[in-house]
Amino acid sequence: MSTPRTVIVTGASSGIGLGLAQAYLDRGYNVVGNARSQAGLDAAAATLGQPERFLGVVGDVADPSTATQMVERAVARFGQVDVLVNNAGFFLPKPFIDYSAEELESLLATNLKGVVYMSQAAARHMIERRQGHIVNISASVALQPNLAVPAALPVLIKGGVNQMTRALALELSPFNIQVNAVAPGIIDTPMHDPAHRDFLNGLQPAGRLGRTEEIADAVLYLSSAGFTTGAVLPVDGGMSSGTW
Hints:
With 244 residues, the protein is an alpha/beta fold. It has one domain (6-241): Rossmann fold (3-Layer(aba) Sandwich), CATH 3.40.50. Helices cover 43% and strands 15% of the residues. It has a seven-stranded parallel β-sheet with strand order 3-2-1-4-5-6-7, with helices on both faces. The N and C termini lie far apart (44 Å). 44% of the residues are buried. The mean pLDDT is 96. It holds the Pfam family adh_short_C2. Belongs to the short-chain dehydrogenases/reductases (SDR) family.
């Protein structure tokens, strides 16, 4: 690429987010990565090892000022924002009646408000440029709930993100902005206890956990797809295809 493209990745300090940051750097992108702590960003920067093309921004995506700051700093450092990946989030499975009010607020803040604020800030910039891509990281369980993994509130919130993806794809289409989502199954990251691996493997028809690079491949495709918008792409080893 003669002029490197720039991507914002929220939740970039570990897991899928760190894998996405690495994949974009490998493709020649400039990367603006977000995390809640400076220590997390410092560790990510050390792992990625390309300080000239990686800019870390500390902040909580549930705070709208974080979104504004990320876009402004991306533009100041690299000139524009071409892609936003709304990756920041967490998964909290438990019986529906056991969710507390505090857990609901926390899920809504990070998994929903963070997507809204970041998308608004990026869309304002992309509308001016009349081009851009927004990719939301959803969840396979929002496409096909699973009795073995009770998670009604994550399903509610990620399901809302899926519908917002479709609505924004229509609304932003006149500005040449594509909006899509990737719905991962269970991905092999440090958050999973190795003692639970056999159980987790059995939740996908493929019989194994997904890899972060498999999510990155899907996100990278949607980052440059000119004729795909409003799609929610499962990358889940068949988990969302139905019950088995």
